[in-house]
Task: structure prediction
Amino acid sequence: MGGVKTKRMPRAVREQQMLDAAVRIFGQRGYMAASMDEIAELAGVSKPLVYLYLTSKECLFTACIRREAAALTAAVRAGVRPDLPADRQLWDGLRAFFAHTAEHPDGWSVLHLQARTHGEPFAAEVAAMRAEIVAFVTRLVVVAAREAHRDPDLPEREVAGIAEALVGAAESLAAWANATPGVTARQSAATLMNFAWAGLSNLMRGHPWAPPPADS
Result:
């Protein structure tokens, strides 16, 4: 009797297995320390097959960045209902962001740490994702200004600065939360809302904080 033939795994499924393994290795060991042998072993495939599918370590890392970036932005967008008030949209978006980064710590490490420190092509991939999230937050700030009925025409530079600050704070807080046992996504989102939204609400109502005079 001949041996039982196993069903051949579709290429797309096999490739996702490789990416799963690569994200884990890159996220935990870093890009430079990660080896294709480790990735192939964790994925349960041969190293030549990894090269056949993804060409090189650089291409594999780029594919990991793109997949994790797309998953993060999709999670944030899926968590937000556009029919809700701006503060609720921001709250839901932050909860989705922190939940995703907590559930995928290796993916977040790839995006937040590894991709940014290993050359322009990798950093550019993350910058594109970040720009999309900043644009999303910018729209929420504009909506909030309109809802406040006090300052619907905030200067473009000020709106952009607020969005950049919020996204930067979320990134840093996510890294801290992943390294701090017991911090939940809800707690992280509440921390940032309490930090940012109170001041943002004052700004929308025409009560911005003003720096002291230059000569004081």
Remarks:
- The two ends are 93 Å apart (CA to CA).
- Residues 1-6 have pLDDT under 50 and may be disordered.
- The chain is about 75% helix and 0% strand.
